[in-house]
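Lecture notes, unit on binding sites. The following record was shown on slide 14. It pairs a sequence with flavin mononucleotide.
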Amino acid sequence: MGFDQNLGVAAFRVGGLGVSTRSVLAPLSGVTDLAFRRIAQRFGAGLVVSEMVASDEYVRGRAEARLRAEGEGISPHVVQLAGCDPYWMAEAARLAEASGAAIIDINMGCPAKKVTGGYAGSALMRDLDVATALMRAAIAACGVPVTVKMRLGWDEASLNAPELARRAEALGVKAVTVHGRTRQQFYKGGADWARIAEVAQAVAIPVIANGDVTSIGDAFACLEASRAAAVMIGRAAVGKPWLVGQIGSALAGRAVREPSAVEKTEAAIEHYQGLLSLFGREIGIRHARKHLAAYADAAREAGAGATGAERLALVTTTEPRVALAILERLYEAAHELRAAA
Ligand SMILES: Cc1cc2nc3c(=O)[nH]c(=O)nc-3n(C[C@H](O)[C@H](O)[C@H](O)COP(=O)(O)O)c2cc1C
């Protein structure tokens, strides 16, 4: 059953849009494909965000960018745009809205050289005037809420997330996500949730805290330290697309349900088949490998799952029927072992 945005039973709001839970799925390039986002949303993620989409490539119609921005079957659909040119940002925001996006998110956090070298992603935190021009362009171009995802700053000497968030709010940005690391940390060290509180104090719009939230306990601790409105979960949800919804339930004080072995099996199979149909057989199989490895690892964490040989077969086979046969038994095995214990 979906969440009715018009009933107003929102856990928090992004502009006029109600979000059903305080737990959202992060954008992960190469990971949060359409099939994955659909499944995470069905399991209760409040929002699911597309992989970052290069705004110029998207507008020029490059197939890969279009595929990343795809949101069929997702509601509300969030498209994350990357770029450094207000013209392309505006055109991309317009196109994303016309294609069904309910929220446009701007990437100001990606540390990759390919992105920062092009002066996008977290490099924007070094030039707040360019960042401002991009936000202004996107807001003027579309009628849906615009949000921004950032880091704490470029490095320890320039922790300017509160200032960027203040500028964003003044321009009309409706929410900001803060990954509690600097760009220079990349993914090293731990995310500093307390530093995110400085952003939450600086603005009245919702702040979504991100970084290293891997469990229900982490989510509570992160919200307490950050004073944020919601948590965003990335890597911990790979292989466990139900985790984001479970965390949302816990934050709402609802009982947390572990999906049955059958539901998990169906989700993994739906994801695999979804990838084959999205990307075609050859690329789909390649793209699926990291997900299949993660499903196998998550099943093992839960009690047993695939043997080493089965995991290897999952990530190397070029035969969908081989992968499907292993997936069929993945959670059953874990289930049986738990039942026998
Ligand atoms: C493989 C990978 C791809 C990512 N791609 C994106 C992206 O496209 N856009 C973005 O804003 N952040 C991206 N991130 C950053 C995540 O959204 C998130 O901020 C980061 O992983 C910290 O959250 P986590 O500890 O819950 O994973 C990516 C991270 C990883 C590991």
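Take-home: The pocket of flavin mononucleotide is lined by residues 26-31, 51-52, 80, 107, 109-110, 149, 179, 210-213, 233-236 (CB under 6 Å).
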